[in-house]
Amino acid sequence: MVLEGIPASPGIVIGPCFLYQYRRMEPEPRRISEKKVRTEIRNFRKSIHNAKNYIRESYEKARLQYGGEIPRILEIQLEILNDKVFLEEIEHLIRKEKFNAAYATFLIFSSKKEQLLRVSDNYMRERALDVANLKWLVLENLMGSRRPIVLPRPAVVVADDLSPADTVNLHQQKVLGIATNKGGINSHTVIIARALSVPAVVGLERITDRVQTGHKLVLDGSHGKVIVNPTTKTIQEYQKRRNLFLSLEEALIKESVKESRTRDGKRIFILANIEFENEMKQVKKVGADGIGLFRTEGIYINRHMLPSEEEQTRIYLKVAQAMYPKPVTIRTIDIGGDKIFPHIFVGQEPNPFLGYRAIRFCLDHADCFISQLRAMLRANVKGNVQVMIPMVSSLEEVYQVRELFEKAKQDLEREGIPYGKDTKLGIMVEIPSVVTLAEAFAREVDFFSIGTNDLVQYTLAVDRSNEHVAYLYSHFHPAVLRLIKETVEAAQTVGIPVSMCGEMAGDPVAVPVLIAMGLDTLSAAHVMIPEMKKVVRQLTLAECQAVYQEIRPLKTTREIKKTLETFFSEKFKDVFYG
Ligand code: PEP
Ligand code: MG
User: Fold this and answer.
1) Is the beta carbon of 295 within 6 A of some atom in ligand 1?
2) Which of 333, 454, 464 has most ligand 1 atoms within 8 Å of CB, for mutation?
3) Is the CB–ligand 1 distance for residue 453 below 6 Å?
4) Band of the pLDDT at 101, cuts 50, 70, 90?
5) What is the pTM of this model?
6) Residue 128, pLDDT score
7) Which of 26, 246, 466, 501 is 20–30 Å from 427 (CA)?
8) Whose CA is nearest to atom 6 of ligand 1?
9) In CATH terms, is domain 256-553 a member of 3.20.20.60?
10) What is the Å distance from ligand 1's center to 312 Cα?
């Protein structure tokens, strides 16, 4: 039996199944007497306390043993359980409505989860899974049904869903792989599985009904497959694939630390996009040539107030020092659109992507903006930090930003606080109006970085997060390619650096075209870097030009994609597995 799900963490494992079955009983609503209120509240607080202890223990293990983003994920879960306003809502239901603690917990956690699921931002939607995990953790404590997962021997764990803390604990018990009914590609459990290199397939829907503990399983995390009770021939086949995967992966990462040049010697700089400061370990492991985009929204998430200038300075300095002397581009906050923050009220908007987002919000909240600019300037004491502004659509915005940027510098100067006097100020090119006026913009800023995620959405009028129109969303649309080329040409004419930090930069199939268009600096998620460097090293400039000339006259996305994919699969057929 072959079950197909979402490939969540790559790699192949073969081993026995351990089915983690737990019956999730939804609590019945009961009205309690006034006398019982105190006991119910005490039980509720105790269950929160126990849940926090469980996560805190996993957090300590993760902090000591793994570092990186894993402890941060567990910290986010702790923050949710420390949210007094949220917990008070539950206690209020017990106190005022006289609901039993289990039902009140169930109700409020479920409504918070629903609230998050309605948000269009993927990151926040995935946080709904955190809330769901926590709901069951607290409820199991409250109803006395909590059972720790104990693996009798190394196994592939099959479960309805797993919490990030469960995943850390399973890793300590030599879990071979993970297969779950639920889960999304960006859920924290999956992020942890990837960080720990545990192969995983999620979204298998009903795998828990179809396997038993002891069944033999092949789990292919690269292709999202689980094979139940495979034949000897299938096992041999997957054994071979596993060995190939391991040797290629090891070689790819080992090679990645070296600089990447095309076969004819052109240096292509491959930088990393980061969301959190603690991604630096992985960024360095893959030999990134710098940070091309530090999305600062990550430091605002799950907070009840804006981080202070001091705190931001500390975070930015940490990243700048970790990368020094390599460059670090920090982007001012891109609030709004599909990125929401509970503590800053952007409000409901009919068209959030066309609304009160990024620089529009910042120029309207000059204090918060200036404190972020000051922190970035202060982090640039050694000269490797530059500041980038998102969602610029008109030159007036650039003039206003410049004014505030100069003011921030003058204030720091007057206050005698050290900062980078020559800090560069650049913009994201992600709105078509900027491309139309690209030369004029290039004369006013120090650098461009092309953000294809938004450039595609604003050029093609396709919401980047709406699955119904996803078939129209492509960075290979001929209009998008032409806008990229125009941007590069304008930057070259005026003589400012231009790079790309949208997802297109991390698409190996796009790399030859981007090089041909004159881009020599590409920034993508650190997991993509070994592959990108490998691609660069196999190419010559002449080859890139040839394939670019081939797609230039083509009028449709389909033809362009087909041509590039054919070029790519012929050229790289032996290089990549999967
Ligand atoms: C982009 O729009 O391409 C980009 C890199 O920014 P974000 O995905 O954060 O909007
Ligand atoms: Mg963008």
Assistant:
1) yes
2) 454
3) yes
4) very high
5) 0.70
6) 81
7) 466
8) 451
9) yes
10) 21
Ligand 1 nearest-atom number relative to CA 502: 3
When the pLDDT of each residue in the chain is averaged and rounded to a whole number, the result is 89
> What is the residue whose two structure tokens read 């992600």?
430
452 CB near ligand 1 (under 6 Å)? yes
Find out whether 425 and 445 touch, Cβ atoms under 8 Å. Answer: yes
Domain 34-143: give its CATH superfamily.
PtsI, HPr-binding domain (1.10.274.10)
Interatomic CA distance for residues 376 and 397, integer angstroms: 19
Q: Is 47 in the pocket of ligand 1 (CB under 6 A)?
A: no
- What Å distances lie between residue 571 and 213, 508, 509, 565, CA to CA? 44, 12, 11, 10
Q: Which of 523, 525, 545, 538 is nearest to 572 (CA)?
A: 538
- Give the ligand whose atoms come closest to the C-alpha of residue 298: 1
Q: How confident is the model at residue 148 (pLDDT cuts 50, 70, 90)?
A: confident
Substitution site in 360, 430, 475 for ligand 1 pocket (most atoms within 8 Å of beta carbon): 430
Nearest-atom index, ligand 1, CA of 504: 3
> Does the beta carbon of 297 sit less than 6 angstroms from any atom of ligand 1?
no
Count of beta carbons in the 10 Å neighbourhood of residue 89: 16
Task: Decide if pLDDT at 376 tops 90.
Answer: yes
Q: Which of 165-174, 293-302, 394-403, 407-416 has the lowest mean pLDDT?
A: 293-302
Enumerate the β-bridge partners of residue 449. 428, 499
Backbone torsions φ then ψ of 424, nearest 5 degrees: -80, 145
Query: Which alpha helices (H) appear in 495-556, and where do they start and end?
Result: 511-516, 529-538, 541-551
What does the alpha-carbon distance between residue 329 and residue 339 come to, in Å, rounded to a whole number?
Answer: 20
> Where in the chain are the domains?
2-22+149-232, 34-143, 256-553
pLDDT(549) > 90: yes
